[in-house]
Write a structure and sequence with these properties.
This protein is α+β, with helices and mostly antiparallel strands. It has six helices and ten strands, in the order E-H-E-E-H-H-E-E-E-H-H-H-E-E-E-E. The chain starts with 11 loop residues before the first strand and ends in a 12-residue tail after the last strand.
Length: 229
């Protein structure tokens, strides 16, 4: 029997940069609550407290995944990355819940992703041939491993993201936290049709005080060839 099809919103991603020891978990919670219409399958938050990452994620609505005691357990910090999921690729299970946290010898990275890659299969195959072990079936892990691979040689997380974007194709947005830096990467890359062009903007999230913490909602942006870059 043919699987019943429904209209869905895409995933929602959220980033917070604040002063040290801020309650970024609650900020991210309210941001994800406002984005609940973009995904109802799962929710997750990673809190970064000066390089120490604490995360919680699970299947369910934001209010179901994050009770008050769960948010308190995430602790205080200066950066948070959040995600609500509607599955565009990858089955609906806990292995594909975001954000994901990756460890490497230059530190850690938390990443939340919205969108799809058109060359995910090719990138996954190339990474596996180099020894990468995947724990999910989503594009997100492909993006994370590609950035980490570049980061091992690049002088900064910004440069690593730029280099990764040269090989990743698709339409997507990212919110990323390194141990010390938060950043968002809105980008649209299409090889076809031709009127879509790349967006090469990497926007660091500036730190702020508790009263002026910087919070950015990110959605993919598309540019026509008739637009000015």
């Amino acid at each position: 029997m043919e699987e019943e099809r429904h209209f869905h919103e895409e995933c929602g991603i959220f980033g917070v940069s604040a002063a040290p020891e801020s309650d970024v978990a609650h900020m991210a919670y309210y941001g994800l609550y406002a984005l609940q219409h973009r995904g109802q399958e799962s929710a997750g938050i990673v809190v970064n407290d000066d390089g120490v990452f604490v995360s919680h994620k699970d299947c369910g609505l934001v209010s179901e995944v994050f009770r008050e005691e769960t948010l308190r357990a995430l602790g205080k910090g200066n950066i948070a990355v959040g995600h609500v999921r509607y599955a565009t690729t990858g089955s609906d299970n806990r292995r594909n819940v975001q954000p994901i946290v990756v460890n490497h010898h230059k530190g850690r990275m938390a990443l939340a992703h919205n969108g799809n890659l058109t060359n995910a299969y090719e990138l996954r195959k190339a990474l596996e041939e180099k020894g990468a072990i995947f724990h999910s079936t989503s594009d997100t892990e492909v993006i994370a491993y590609t950035i980490v691979q570049k980061r091992l040689e690049a002088p900064s997380i910004e440069e690593a993201v730029y280099q990764a974007m040269e090989v990743i194709e698709g339409a997507y947005s990212l919110v990323i936290s390194s141990p010390t830096k938060p950043a968002v990467k809105p980008r649209a890359v299409f090889s076809k049709p031709r009127f879509f062009r790349m967006m090469e903007t990497l926007m660091p999230l500036p730190p702020g005080s508790m009263s002026s913490s910087f919070v950015r909602l990110v959605r993919p942006s598309l540019k026509s060839s008739t637009d000015t870059m």
